[in-house]
């Protein structure tokens, strides 16, 4: 009797261990795909749809194409880097009570990975080029600034923040000077089988005009292996809970698919 009970306990222990290992494996897959400091090439296709703008009946949309390229340490720069380029294709209200659609301003930033164990840290320069097809789709200004990222990764998920600051230094003299900052706290909570919960709303501050809006998101996603790559699809509704100024998003539906190559 004791032998049979011992065998049952052994089988249950092995089943529990195998499930734990499987959960840890899918959690690691989700972490790699969601971590902005993951040292791997990637391609993100993301969309921000705002059906309602405060004090207006207008809507807006931003489809963002983002490429990510890791750079190994070299003789000139002795730490690893992550280059990220983001180009939006935007739809905005125009002055004629219609809408303009086209490319927006191109943003580039280079993160130097200063710490990769425990609490991961990265900091680096960023620049925004005035590539917008129409005035309402961009600022008309060259901008430069800094970005900083901190990430705490565990099997339970990710916690961290991305902070960005930039100010205009050149461009169309008829356009207004630009000075802005963003703060993006993010929480990823891993679930079994690659599923996860997420909250990644970006708080935006227009320092020149003293306006801001703060969205809070709650969404769900799933990451899975496809050959040697990781695919990650998600949707995250975001509600603006605090604001100062007009023409700001009231609600945004954020969705996308991220591809991490070679992992």
Describe this structure in words.
By secondary structure, the protein is mainly beta. The chain is built from one helix and 15 strands. The protein has one helix spanning 2-34; strands spanning 42-53, 60-71, 81-93, 99-103, 106-115, 119-129, 141-154, 157-171, 179-190, 195-199, 203-206, 211-217, 219-226, 229-244, 249-260. The protein has a 15-stranded antiparallel β-sheet that branches. The longest helix has 33 residues, at 2-34. The radius of gyration is 22 Å and the shape is globular. It starts with a helix and ends with a strand. 27% of the residues are buried. Mean pLDDT is 90; it is low at 9-24.
Give the biggest beta sheet.
15 strands, antiparallel
Q: Tell me the series of helices and strands, N- to C-terminal.
A: HEEEEEEEEEEEEEEE
Proportion in helices:
10-25%
Poorly predicted regions? 9-24
Described by the principal axes of the CA atoms, the overall outline is globular
Helical region count? 1
Regarding quaternary structure, what we see is: single chain
Strand content: over 45%
Write the layout of secondary structure elements.
Blueprint: H1 2-34, E1 42-53, E2 60-71, E3 81-93, E4 99-103, E5 106-115, E6 119-129, E7 141-154, E8 157-171, E9 179-190, E10 195-199, E11 203-206, E12 211-217, E13 219-226, E14 229-244, E15 249-260
Could you give a quick summary of the protein structure above?
It contains one helix and 15 strands. With 263 residues, the chain is mainly beta. It has a 15-stranded antiparallel beta sheet that branches.
């Amino acid at each position: 009797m004791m032998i049979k009970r011992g065998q049952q306990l052994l089988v249950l222990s092995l089943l529990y261990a195998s499930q734990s290992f499987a959960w840890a494996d899918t959690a690691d897959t989700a972490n790699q795909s969601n971590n902005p400091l993951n040292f791997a090439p990637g391609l993100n296709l993301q969309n921000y749809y705002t059906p309602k703008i405060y004090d207006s009946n207008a809507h807006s949309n931003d489809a963002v194409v983002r490429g990510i390229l890791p750079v190994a340490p070299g003789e000139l720069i002795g730490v690893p880097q992550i280059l990220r380029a983001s180009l939006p294709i935007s739809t905005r209200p125009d002055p004629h009570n219609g809408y303009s659609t086209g490319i927006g301003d191109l943003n580039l930033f280079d993160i130097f990975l200063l710490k990769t164990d425990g609490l991961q840290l990265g900091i680096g320069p960023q620049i925004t080029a005035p590539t917008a097809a129409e005035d309402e789709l961009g600022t008309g200004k060259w901008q430069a600034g800094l970005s900083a990222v901190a990430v705490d990764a565990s099997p339970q998920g990710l916690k961290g923040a991305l902070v960005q600051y930039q100010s205009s230094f050149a461009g169309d003299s008829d356009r207004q000077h630009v000075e802005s900052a963003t703060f993006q706290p993010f929480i990823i909570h891993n679930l079994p089988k690659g599923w996860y919960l997420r909250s990644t709303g970006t708080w935006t501050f227009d320092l020149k005009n003293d306006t801001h809006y703060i969205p809070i998101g709650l969404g769900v996603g799933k990451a899975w292996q496809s050959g040697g790559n990781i695919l990650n699809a998600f949707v995250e509704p975001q509600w603006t809970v605090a604001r100062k100024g007009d023409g700001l998003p009231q609600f945004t539906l954020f969705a996308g698919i991220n591809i991490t190559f070679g992992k």
